Amino acid sequence: MPVTQIDDRKVWQRRDRAQQLRIWLGWLVGVALFMVCWEYISRQTIWIFVWDAPQQAFDMARRMSNPPWGYFDRILWPMWDTINMATLGTLIGVVIATPLAFLAAWNTTPSRFVLRPLALGIIVTSRSINSLIWALLLVLILGPGLMAGIIAIALRSIGFVGKLLYEAIEEIDENQVEAIRATGAAPTQVLSYGVWPQILPAFAGISVYRWDINIREATILGLVGAGGIGVQLSASVNSLAWGQVSVIFIAILLTVVVSEWVSAKVRHAII
Amino acid sequence: MSIAAAAPQAAPRQWRKPPFIRDPRLRYAIYVGALIYLVIGIGSVNFNWDRMVAGLDRGIAFVAAFLAPDFTTRWTDISKGLLESLTMTLIATVFGVILSIPVALGAARNLAPWPIYAVCRSIIAVSRAFQEVVIAIVFVAMFGFGPFAGAMTLAFATIGFLGKLLAEDIEDIDRDQVEAIRATGSSWFQLLNYAIQPQVAPRFIGLCVYRLDINFRESAVIGIVGAGGIGATLNTALGRYEYDSAAAILLSIIVIVFIAEYSSGFIRRRFL
Asked: Does B79 reach chain A within 8 Å, measured CB to CB?
């Protein structure tokens, strides 16, 4: 707490001069960086379009405000596809992620220097690529359709479920594992009686949570051709049928709200 | 449970793990329901096996490209895309943080009167309900193609994320400190500055850094619908079937995400 003497009065300041300067310098660098970035973005922007935006927004809102409700029947089937894609993708993802999580957790991994880094590498790779990008790749390889979407969802889920699950495994109570081991159990029995019951609630919670996220993500995978409601969305946007777009938005919103409610209920029941 | 009933007979020799779902009726209902769903669900997905087999070559080509990524041929495009994504991320986070603070203040039940609370909560709800990509479609239609629309999309998504978490933090603060500052006769802004800000600032800074990290990930995606950034470059590379360049882009995304995640984790540990 620096106190300075100004005209024989003591003045208290929160920080001394060096600290104050450092904070000031930090702000200077931060603001300068922001200005440089802003410059860069603004050079790439056609400002006429941006100034035009309020009018565009008005126009769009007007065209979206009268949705053709009859279109709703035609998106029921794609919606069912979307939900299927999310559910089956989550299922595959969870099935692959579970053994991976056991390999990645330091207290259950069979080899700390070979398999563990490998499993962690798979988890990181899967997590850092968004499911839309996975879908983009898979549509090229597998062709457009639900299969690409299901696998894209599964590939993204592996990392998410794997990470949360291996963290849960690392936090288990070792005493229970010790107790099971003391009965002379085989390693697989230790896993199934000592480790698995402890992480089962976390496992169920994580899976349902990921399912809920996947429903959201599945709604847009169709934009790159991976099936589901996104195909209709992209077709409507491309043909500027904003009325249909608003029907699709409402359908997505409803599905997301319902899935979030289901997932919250299930997680609440488990915990 | 059944100990009393079993007492006259010999003690049970067999022990079974208690099931996860206690109620047997519920348990079997879930099993049967899941089975029926699986049959219908898988049945209703029609697979085009021929197309998938035909695509196998491409799959192999892609894996091969991943082992030998080509950074050099399209390096100008890749570096431009990455730079665009990074600037977009920074701009969006700054705007999002600045805008999320008033929204969060309005969405905290202990600070805001009813009408303001309702408005701010609905802003948060709308921003959280839609995927970034969906917002990007609308914003690209409004602002035109390019990173500006992307930055606005991410800023909008940031408002929902930070607004909700900050509002919850403000609702959970220690009332006594607010009372103490108010007792000194402070104005509303002084109350914010001396009673509320010190209590929520450390966690908020951590959340901002975390959101910066998320925004970069998302910036790689929204380019696919025309909002600029590395996603647009990736989409072009895949459109040209240049798998080696696409692999290079993906690897750069993975590396940057990795660095961002670790540094954001490090910063958050220091501040919390």
From this structure: no
Supply the DSSP symbol for A10.
Answer: E
Establish how many alpha carbons lie within 13 A of residue A164's alpha carbon, considering only the half-sphere containing its beta carbon: 16
Q: Do B94 and A34 touch (CB under 8 A)?
A: yes
B59: contact with A, CB 8 A cutoff: yes
Q: What is the pLDDT of residues B49-82, one digit of tens each?
A: 777 787 788 888 888 888 888 888 888 888 888 9
- What CATH code would you report for B71-271? 1.10.3720.10
Q: What share of chain B is helix, strand, coil (3-state, %, to 5)?
A: 80, 0, 20
- Pairing mode, if any, of strands A3-6 and A9-12? antiparallel
> Cβ atoms within 10 A of the Cβ of B190, count?
13
Chain B residues within an 8 Å CB radius of A35: none
- CA–CA distance, B113 with B56 (Å, rounded to integer): 61
Contact of A148 with chain B, judged by CB distance below 8 Å, is answered with: no
Contact B173, B196 (CB under 8 A): yes
Q: Is the ipTM of this complex over 0.90?
A: no
Task: Say whether pTM exceeds 0.80.
Answer: yes
